[in-house]
Structure formats: structure tokens, C-alpha cells
């Protein structure tokens, strides 16, 4: 996972629970990485999981809830850092439809060794969008939180209905979004 | 004290991050340098390839041309009317294709030359004038070359640029009028603005934007020769010099092609 996500995770913990908590959490973690995380670096996914699990325990939140909150925070940090990806859109649906084939494509040009999720879109109706998510990392809760961040950014409500299923031995996750 | 400790710690983490980032930048720069060299090599290969390909194409094309001409010469009127017509179509097409292949070659070469140098535009235009002596003589044209500056640019490209614009100006003249071409330059804030003005047939406003596209052909080819790629060259050359190219024209009253060339010294 790219360092930028680690940095955002650290920022999330520091902002929400305090610098000291972050210190505590990081020293309690058993990380493969010794040096500090930098944005363009690539670090083991397990290190992120270790941070998330340790942090969730220390702040007394279930891991999925922690991930969702972190996803929400993450969207705002990404949008802050890359305003050009977000600014052109006035509604969340148009924006979300660019994540896979514009934003993450650009991300791939900015960073090397990325491993981005794959999205498949379908539009059952004007105010609906189904994003089928596929990633070996299965970061379903982070994704849910990111979408919540998008909703708040555009100052709208997005109702999410989820379904997890398997096809040809691969696990997929549908985010059925209803905009209002 | 505790706070001081924490600041110190933060500072040392920040320093460590800077070191890591610097190393990443170095590595990346080295990679970019290597891939840039790779690209340059590939470009050279490509240039060589198109050179060879075009030479290989030119040869059979020349054969088609000369044998179809020979055929026309010998057998004209001996077969039926269609045969004559078909053969002259073949001959004309082969000629056009030769011109196209040549132009494509030139197009590929733009931008692959060495470095920018000081280019004396007046000298360049005088040389272009002598290259075009034949057509100037045949059409009875006059070239009015104003005072032109020394600019910083790619000499071969600049020459091609003037050559294209001047020969276009000579080509698209009114049937019974002698072409008159004026070449001048004026200084703008950060660039030179050149003008190549003719008294030719002019360009319909609907075409004025399209004419810089590759292969866009402006005039009916039966009346005016030319493959239309010339102006696309010009645009590419001007782009290479961070400039703009445009045309102002009134149908029937001549055209003025303007282009600007950035002067890096003023930037
Ligand atoms: C400004 C907008 C965005 C930027 C710059 C951005 C950039 C990134 C980056 C750098 C990563 C890490 C990739 C890696 O470590 O290899 C990532 C991962 C991810 N992004 Fe985005 N992203 C943006 C918006 C979104 C949005 C709106 C969503 C959801 C709808 C999303 C979903 C995800 C998910 C779920 C991951 C985790 C990786 C995985 O699931 O395998 N991103 N993104």
C-alpha cells in the first residue's frame, strides 16, 4: 500500500485521538517497516492492517467501524491534496463514476507500484449507481467510508446497500448507491 | 521538557523522511534519464526506419510512375478511351503518393534535430529564395524580404517553415496575376512575430482553422498541386518553438500567415 495512505491513517489517528495516542499505537505495533512512511513509498499491506487493528483496540472501536471512519477522513484528505480530481463535479454520482477510469488511472501515473481496486459501474436509474468493487485487499469498510466522505463533501445523502458474493472463486462487493 | 523532547523527535523523523524522499528522487531521476536515453534511441531507430521505408517505397513508386508514363506515351489512343483514362489516373496517383511519402518523411524528422542555435532568419529566407528560384522564375514572382531578426531556434526547422510558407504563397496565386510575397517580422514582448503575406487566391474563412491539420487539403488538386501536409509541418515547427501560427485572409484578396517564435532570452 502506498505511503500516502499510511500518512493519512497516521493523520486520522492523530487528529481524532491525539498525537500521544498515535505515539502509543505506533510503538505498540509490530511493523515490518522500520523507517518512517513517506507518501511515494510502498509498504506491506500487513503494516497498515497492524496499525488499524492496534489503533481500533486502543480506542475501543470495532475494526470495521474504525475503517469506515478512516475512509471518511481519507476522502477529505485525498480531495484536499488533489482538488483537481474533485472540483469539476457538482454531484457525487458524476464524480464517483470517474474514480476508476480517471482518478485511479492518474494515480497510477503519479505513483509507481500501485495496486488499485477495480470498479465496475452500472446505473439502474438516474439516482442510483451500483459500484462493483474488486480487490484482493477486500477493503470493504474503507470503501464504504470513502463513499460517506464523498456524500458529505457534496453535501448530499447517499444510501448504501451492500452485497458480497462470489464468482469464479473471486469475491465481489456491490455498493448499491441511492442518491437523494 | 516533555514538549521539547517531542519536538526533537518530530524533527528527527522529518529529517529521516527528507533523506528517504531525496533518495527516491535520485533513483527516479536516474530511471527517467535511462528511459529518456532509451526513447532517444528508439526515436533514432524510428527515423532510420521511416527513412529506409520511404526509400524502399520511393523506388517501386518511381517505377510505376515512369512505366505508366511510358505506357501513356506509347499506347495513347491505341486502346479504348477508358484505358487512357485509367492509366493517367494511375500515373497521377503514383506522383501524389511520391509527394506524400516525401512529406511524411519530413514530418517525421521535425524535432529530432540537435540543439537550438542562433538562426539568422534573413540568411535563411535568402537561401529559401534561391532554393525556390525555379518556381519564382516560372511564375514571375517577386519576394520582398524585410529586415528579419536573428532568433534562437532550430535552424533546419525554421528553414522548412519559411520554405513551406513561401512556396505555398507562390503556389496558390491567381491564375493571371504575378505572385508577390512579403516576409516581415515585428518584435513583440517575449517573441518575434513573423508575417508571410501574399496576393493570392485567399482562404475561405471556413477553412482557416482546418488548414493546419495533417492532410487537410485546401484547394482542388486538379488546379493546385500540393499535398496539404505542408501547413501541418508548419504548425509542428511553430509548436516546437512554443509559438502560435494563424492565418488572416479574405477570399480573393490574398492571405497573411503569421507565426510567433518565443525568444527564450526574455523568459
Ligand atoms: C481524489 C480522489 C482519489 C485519489 C487521489 C485516490 C488515490 C488512491 C491511492 C493513492 C490509493 C492507494 C493505492 C495503492 O496503495 O496502491 C487508493 C486506494 C483506494 N481507493 Fe482511491 N483515490 C481517490 C478517490 C477514491 C474514491 C472516491 C474511492 C471510492 C469510491 C476510492 C477507493 C479506493 C479504495 C477502496 C482503495 C484501497 C485499495 C484497495 O481497495 O485495494 N478512491 N486511492
Write the layout of secondary structure elements.
The complex is a heterodimer of chains A (180) and B (267).
Chain A: H1 3-17, H2 19-28, H3 45-58, H4 63-81, H5 83-86, H6 92-110, E1 118-122, E2 128-134, H7 140-153, E3 158-167, E4 170-179
Antiparallel strand pairs in A: 1-2, 2-4, 3-4
Helix pairs in contact in A: 1-2, 1-4, 2-3, 4-7
Chain B: H1 2-75, H2 81-109, E1 117-120, H3 121-131, H4 133-139, E2 142-145, E3 150-153, H5 155-171, E4 180-187, E5 191-198, H6 229-240, E6 245-249, E7 255-262
Parallel strand pairs in B: 2-4
Antiparallel strand pairs in B: 1-3, 4-5, 5-7, 6-7
Bound molecules: protoporphyrin IX containing FE.
| Overall number of domains of chain B | 2
> How many strand elements of chain B?
7
The CATH architecture classification of the largest domain in chain A is Alpha-Beta Complex
Biggest interface and residues each: A-B, 6 and 7 residues
Radius of gyration over C-alpha positions of chain A, nearest whole angstrom: 16 Å
Shape of chain B: extended
CATH class type of the largest domain in chain B: Alpha Beta
Report how far the terminal alpha carbons of chain A are from each other. Answer: 33 Å
Counted up, domains of chain A total 2
Largest sheet of chain A: 4 strands, antiparallel
Spatial order of strands in the largest sheet of chain A: 1-2-4-3
- CATH fold annotation of the largest domain in chain A: H-NOX domain
Order of helices and strands of chain B: HHEHHEEHEEHEE
Organism (chain B): Zeaxanthinibacter enoshimensis
Catalytic activity (chain B): ATP + protein L-histidine = ADP + protein N-phospho-L-histidine
Protein name (chain B): histidine kinase
Keywords (chain B): Coiled coil, Kinase, Phosphoprotein, Transferase
